[in-house]
Amino acid sequence: LLPEAGFITEEGSAVYSGEEYCWVIDPLDGTTNYIHDNAPYCVSIALRNRTELLLGVVYEVCRDECYYAWKGGKAYLNGEQIHVSDVRDVKNSFLQLELPYNYQDYRPTIEYVFHELYGKVSSIRINGSSAMSLCYVAAGRFEGWMEAYIGKWDFSAGALIVMEAGGQVTDFTGNEHFIDGHHIIATNGYLHQSLLQLVKVVPPKL
């Protein structure tokens, strides 16, 4: 299956030197959750070319849920089409925030974002798996998610699934050409500008 493609992986076995196509693989996203026998954790596989995401598959082990999408082909969960939520008011939103390992660099940003959102939205969760958080946005379970200092293997598959489910994905500056970035926001689209404005006030170090 595309033997000419390169590979980008989290586990240190990447083989990529500018090939036209590249597989982006995380064999276990949510490692800390897995170690502590706490859901969710998943396998994440994406196919991209030099400029865009083409295919994404995320399998969540604990709930036996397989999310997938291909460019221009909508998004699916276990064979059923999924779509982002239609919540348009931030106060009714169910959001996901994450706490990356670069805590010293990200602390000012996340403290500001949490301060501005806590008590002003429906609720906030930390899931511990970037790929699953993205899929939950795609399925309409959450309205938004953001995380900084993450790798391509963390977000590539899930980001495509969100977009094909009708959502919006950008970096923290609002740039839609995010696939080589490390700071990602994904939403149902309606709330994107609201979350984007928060991280622009106290942006993390790029």
Output the keywords:
metal-binding; 5 helices; Fructose-1,6-Bisphosphatase, Chain A, domain 1; magnesium; alpha+beta; 2 domains; Inositol_monoP_metal-BS; 206 residues; hydrolase; seven-stranded mixed beta sheet; 12 strands
What features would you describe in this structure?
It catalyses: a myo-inositol phosphate + H2O = myo-inositol + phosphate. Its EC number is 3.1.3.25. Its cofactor is Mg(2+). One of its GO terms (biological process) is inositol metabolic process. InterPro entries: IMPase (IPR033942), Inositol_monoP_metal-BS (IPR020583), Inositol_monophosphatase-like (IPR000760). Helix content is 25%, strand content 28%. The protein is built from 5 helices and 12 strands. With 206 residues, it is α+β, with helices and mostly antiparallel strands. The protein folds into 2 domains: 6-81, Fructose-1,6-Bisphosphatase, Chain A, domain 1; 90-201, D-Maltodextrin-Binding Protein, domain 2, CATH 3.40.190.80. The chain has helices at 31-35, 103-117, 130-138, 152-164, 192-201; strands at 6-9, 22-29, 42-48, 53-60, 65-70, 75-77, 80-81, 94-97, 123-125, 144-147, 168-171, 184-187. The longest helix is centred in the middle third of the chain and has 15 residues, at 103-117. The strands form 2 sheets. The chain has a 7-stranded mixed β-sheet, covered by helices on one side. It has a 5-stranded mixed β-sheet with strand order 9-8-10-12-11, sandwiched between helices. The model has no long low-confidence stretch (mean pLDDT 94).
